[in-house]
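Troubleshooting: if your tokenizer reports a length mismatch, compare your output against this known-good record of 123 residues.
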Amino acid sequence: MSSTRNEFVDYVVELMAGWAAVSSRRMFGGYGLYRDGLMFALIVEDELYFKTDAANVALFERAGSRPFVYQSQTRTVQMSYWSAPAASLDSPAEMVEWCQSAYGSALRAQVAKAGKSVKGKCK
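Known-good structure output:
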């Protein structure tokens, strides 16, 4: 087994297989999880975080999740990724629900980003 493999990442990707084909890519000391080339989750230090936005963050809050936070050289940064509810790591059915929510957030972010780039080109 290569040193770039991670058993937790492999487990999560396998658990998500009932939802969709998911790939992982190493990045920033962790892994990005992708569906159809769109990142919807990340794994850092063997903890899974899902993409959130205004439409779904309350679901994560109610589930007891917490935001992914890291320390840059100058400040503490909170990203739009929240920890996976514990039940999602034990149940393929639960995992599908959380993946779908996170993927929806990633799709909305992609649409918003595309809209901004179109507006920028229309000046």
